[in-house]
Amino acid sequence: MAKVLVLGASGLFGKRAAEAFAAAGWQVTKFKRGSDMKAAAQGMDVIVNGLNPPAYHNWSVLIPQITEEVIAAGLASGARVVVPGNVYVFGKEPAPWGPGTPQRPVSRKGAIRAAMEARYKQASREQGLRVLILMAGDFLEAGSLQTMFSQFTLRGLKAGKIIYGGTPDTMHAYANLRDLGRAAEALVSLPDLPAHAEVPFYGHSFTAREVKAEVERQTGRSHRFGRFPWWQMRLVAPFWELAREVLEMRYLTEHPHWLDPAPMQALLPDFQMTPFVQVIADHLAVRLPQYRPATGQIASAR
After folding, report:
1. Alpha-carbon torsion 165, 244, 240, 232, what sign?
2. Which residues face 173 on adjacent strands?
3. Quick check: 179 and 238 in contact, CB under 8 A?
4. How would you label 11-37 residue by residue, b for 16+ Cβ within 10 Å and e otherwise?
5. Gap between the Cα atoms of 115 and 106, Å rounded
6. Percent helix, strand, coil in the chain (nearest 5)?
7. pLDDT (tens place) for every residue of the chain, 302 residues total
């Protein structure tokens, strides 16, 4: 039985990756924070790096530390490392984004992530590390309020509003975490995956206008648009780290982007994403307690 060590198994990506590997028949070990990562990695076939400082905290220090520790564990064990990449590295390059897109970050966090990916690539080229960088857009996780989609786009859902940060028609890349976990397992199971593989997880790409239309179709209620109050974020930014970090990434709400589906489709031609309609239904079921996915309508209050 193949074995996988999941780092950050209680986090958004780590949790879904652990579930996907277990469902596929892998022996899953969840890494205990504070223990010896090199020792935990011994005998493993894959290491899933689900570690990420929450709320963008101290990325410049913590991400390089995590990267070096994970590389060391991968080299010591011979396990392939799976790293969830993101779109920050591409800055404002024209879409679609993929392995051939120049990495020209326009944000501090984008530069940190680009340096992280370069370090994995160097370890692969010079030291023989096997690594899969699975680049993805903003996470989608219906049961969590930690994602940007839940925190921002759907923040006014109960009041009948869909929030947008740039324009209602700006295309934005997303990754449903259940699908991302399944894709990670399927890709590392391929016998001919290159030692250093960079695969764009194309997931879903949609606009706030498309979200509004689907929410209205499923709920039977009219919704209106609301513009995200960036001025509030600027007001509290001097005192709130998360606000400062989110403001830096505002450009992603204004720059249309999506990931190139061709590389992943060539590797996994039969892979099926969760339909967009179901993704929205899952979020509605959580955000609107009276929502009934089976009927697609708002149930009458009792």
Report:
1. negative
2. 205
3. no
4. bbbbbbbbbbbeeeebebbbbeeeeeb
5. 13
6. 45, 20, 35
7. 899 999 999 999 999 999 999 999 999 999 998 899 999 999 999 999 999 877 667 888 999 999 999 999 999 999 999 999 999 999 999 999 999 999 999 999 999 999 999 999 999 999 999 999 999 999 999 988 889 899 889 999 999 999 999 999 999 999 999 999 999 999 999 999 999 999 999 999 999 999 999 999 999 999 999 999 888 888 998 888 888 888 988 999 999 999 999 999 999 999 999 999 999 999 999 988 776 654 444 333 22
Q: Which residues of 103-131 are buried (b: 16+ CB within 10 A; e: fewer)?
A: bebbbebbbbbbbbbebbeebbeeeebbb
Full-model pTM = 0.93
Residues near 79 by Cβ (< 8 Å), separated by ≥ 6? 5, 41, 44, 45, 46, 47, 73, 130
Please give the single-letter amino acid code of residue 106. Answer: V
Q: How far is CA 21 from CA 14, 45, 95, in A?
A: 11, 12, 31
Preceding peptide of 200 cis, ω within 30°: no
Spatial distance between the Cα atoms of 85 and 249, rounded to a whole number of angstroms: 16
Q: Please give the C-alpha separations between residue 214 and each of 218, 221, 257, 280, 297, in angstroms, as whole numbers.
A: 6, 10, 20, 7, 12
